[in-house]
Write a structure and sequence with these properties.
The chain contains one helix and twelve strands. It is mainly β. The strands form two sheets. Strands 2, 3, 5, 7, 8, 10 and 11 form a seven-stranded antiparallel beta sheet that branches. Strands 1, 4, 6, 9 and 12 form a five-stranded antiparallel beta sheet that branches. It starts with 13 loop residues before the first strand and ends in a 35-residue tail after the last strand.
């Protein structure tokens, strides 16, 4: 069986590198990366069962500032609440609240969740044995029914530029501000 990944969602430039849902009741992680990256309807429980302490972990190899999500079924339970946080330590023992995201996955359809990853302390850390730049959605008040998601994507920062002179010789030692990049968009991915 071959699994085809869907193209990243509109506005994004990358699929999720790793997605885990964590069930606080059983203290188990489920790696649902394949389902997070395909367009199948409702095949990802983003915060597991929606109980207090359940978590959705979104991991990328590079820093990112946008998370694009298509929710198939919205979470129910009027008092349900999620705290959005980003990892700030190499072992992900320290998390900081993202004040710009308040989404609880109660609405259906496509949405963009934004944070300023370039000015935060978003650090590469390890969750369940995987090192990445992690953002998490942690349930702080239980939902009656958790949300299901069809697909997730991100807008990552992975700018790696090789600079050469007119003769093709590599130039090293450049610092930010020594050059500009033009004729690209915020979703251009350089490889």
């Amino acid at each position: 069986i071959s699994v085809l990944q869907a193209a990243p969602l509109t506005g994004a430039n990358a699929d999720i590198n790793t997605f885990f849902s964590y069930d606080a009741g059983t203290t188990t992680y489920t790696n649902d990366t394949t389902d997070a990256n395909d367009a199948d309807t409702g095949d990802v429980n983003v915060v597991d069962s929606g109980g207090v302490g359940d978590i959705g972990y979104f991991g990328m190899n590079y820093k990112y500032d946008r998370l694009f999500i298509t929710t198939t079924t919205g979470a129910t339970g009027a008092s349900g609440a999620i705290t959005w946080e980003y990892c700030t330590s190499s072992d992900c023992s320290t998390w900081t609240t993202i004040g710009t995201i308040s989404d609880k996955f109660t609405a259906t359809g496509a949405r963009t969740l934004s944070m300023d990853a370039s000015s935060t302390g978003l650090a590469s850390g390890t969750v369940n044995g995987v090192t990445a730049y992690w953002i998490r959605a942690r349930v702080t008040t239980a939902f009656t029914t958790p949300a299901t998601v069809a697909q997730m994507s991100t807008r990552e920062f992975n700018l790696k530029v090789k600079v050469v002179d007119e003769l093709g010789n590599g130039i090293t030692g450049l610092v930010p501000g020594s050059f500009t990049i033009a004729n690209c968009t915020t979703t251009t991915k350089y490889t």
